[in-house]
Design a protein that fits this description.
- The protein is an alpha+beta fold and 145 residues long.
- It has one domain.
- 65% of the residues lie in helices and 13% in strands.
- The chain has a three-stranded antiparallel beta sheet.
- Helix 1 packs parallel to helix 3, helix 2 runs antiparallel to helix 3 and helix 3 packs antiparallel against helix 4.
- It is globular.
């Protein structure tokens, strides 16, 4: 149950921030938070990271569905072995569902964090990356035991 709540919390946080950005920014508008270092820049990304595979909506919907199913299955396996990993896998699932909803509803993903030296990204992307990295740490740590 706790993992469901974590994933739902990430999903809600992601969708609320995207809703606020879409409502308060014009497309491609950029506002500096720290000039030339960190801006909030509203874009609609039709692809993956770096805009790769742009306009491959069906591919992303199918791939994301399969990845979510795999992660949930893996979480069942890890429950006894390394339950801490599941906290972070749940974060990744929530993020993946957030981006899935964008793609399913609009065909693009709303991105807005702009560090100027990296492609613009969003809350869901952050939780996916951080969640998977920390989960991998726990899984690899558990394998050493």
């Amino acid at each position: 149950m706790i993992y469901f709540l974590i994933a739902a919390g990430v999903l809600i946080f992601d969708q609320v921030t995207k809703f606020l950005v879409r409502g308060d920014f014009a497309l491609y508008e950029s506002r500096p938070v720290i000039e030339n270092i960190f801006h909030l820049t509203y874009i609609e990304n039709p692809g993956a990271a770096f805009g790769m595979l742009a306009d491959k909506r069906l591919f992303f919907l199918i791939a994301t569905s399969l990845i979510i199913i795999f992660i949930i299955y893996f979480m069942k396996l890890m429950e006894k072995e390394e339950p801490k990993a599941n906290i972070f896998l749940a974060m990744a699932v929530g993020g993946a569902i957030g981006n899935f909803i964008d793609r399913a509803m609009k065909g693009t993903v709303t991105d807005f964090f702009d560090f100027r030296i990296w492609p613009v990204f969003n809350i869901a992307d952050s939780f996916i990356v951080v969640g998977m990295i920390i989960a991998a740490f726990y899984v690899l740590k558990g394998e050493k035991k």
